[in-house]
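Input.
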Amino acid sequence: MAYFEHEGCTLHYEEYGHGTPLLLVHGLGSSTLDWEKQIPELSTRYRVIIPDVRGHGRSDKPRERYSIASFSADLVALIEYLNLGPTHLVGLSMGGMIGFQLAVDQPSLLKSLCIVNSAPEVKVRTADDYWQWFKRWSLMRILSLRTIGTALGGKLFPKPEQADLRHKMAERWAKNDKRAYLASFNAIVGWGVQERLAKVTCPTLIISADRDYTPVALKEAYVKLLPDARLVVIEDSRHATPLDQPHRFNQTLLEFLTAVDTTTQDH
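Output.
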């Protein structure tokens, strides 16, 4: 268990393995535990670094407004604190947004970027968008985090054999700090860097579950805006692909990272 300070906030991270650094960034309401099915395999070949985003897990939960830009600044501080140099970054959902923000702000810090079930913007444009956002926000204020976790678990892991994952989801969600959770949700809504995607110069892999919340078509559209990106769709998966299809996910990611590392060595 390791900690570092950034702007008066104590942030928690974990480290496994040796080699080229690989940062794994979790989603909203989650923690380093998002990556339990990746650590054993990835850490045999990489120095895997897994932070708890501000307001999550074992990191501080300051009473303030959160933003994707400040989450990204925390990661930049971690990269500098550990003196990593250019690193591979994998971000799931909100972690992908943080990855996009870092990639457009500080492209030289990234060796590669992998975005999992995420998007470069969350804009509220139509009356329906506003209604969906308001509905989610209201439910999150009213319901207990355990109730939300149970509902999410049922959505993300609906199969009979996924009972264990459903149970974990409910347990983990219940441990969130409600105020920090809402502040993080507010940081997502209205955020976007889509108009700056041309700045993402590193090789980029977009992974989409075939049954993610947002359609594969959305990912196909923004992949075209990135200078060096490709999309891989993982079958029979929902929003938490690293947990529901760990083997396919790890294989896809390792193939991509190996290709990037080989190309960099050749230059």
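The chain has one domain: 2-122+191-266.
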